[in-house]
What we know:
Helices cover 33% and strands 16% of the residues. It is α/β, with parallel strands linked by helices. Strands 3-2-1-4-5-6 form a 6-stranded parallel beta sheet, with helices on both faces.
Amino acid sequence: MGGVNRIGILGGTFDPPHLAHFIIAESARDELRLDKVLWVVAADPPHKREIILSPIQHRLAMIRLALKGQPMFELSLLDIERDGPHYTVDMLSLAASAHPGDQLFFLMGSDSLRDLPTWRDPGKLTEHAAICVVRRPDVSDSLNDLFAVVPQLEGQIVFLNAPLVDISSTMIRERVQQGRTIRYLLPERVESYIHKHHLYG
């Protein structure tokens, strides 16, 4: 058979994976007519060095539980099976090599778009994938500042319309620390895993 596949790439620490991740992935799959979405677990993101991440085996276990029974979503070990430092531009280059001839779509929130000028070689991101950004009301859609710093991105960004859900991994970790409920913020299997292994306490 063959043919060109349309593949979304959703990167993150997923510590833990939650429902907002799924809303982004599914909205992109629907709007961009993607064949599948790769969930690329970040090994050691340089821009999050101040955050103490859960051990990789826990993050992988949570992702596997979250994605269970959903063939359109697939765990990717692309980032954790390579030597550091772990920059997105390098990960996308590897993804393009692993999927020759396919169309890649890098999915990100508009808060990440705001920080893009601080990333390694941001102008080279579109050499490997289309940049697809989920709109958020608390981040300006004004791209003038971004294009002034990274002119290569002008005309290369696609905005996606996804339901807005104010859930973050940081918020979930804080709620666990405070002994508050996290039910309905993430898949039930992931919630059970967090409590079983006493994560974030």
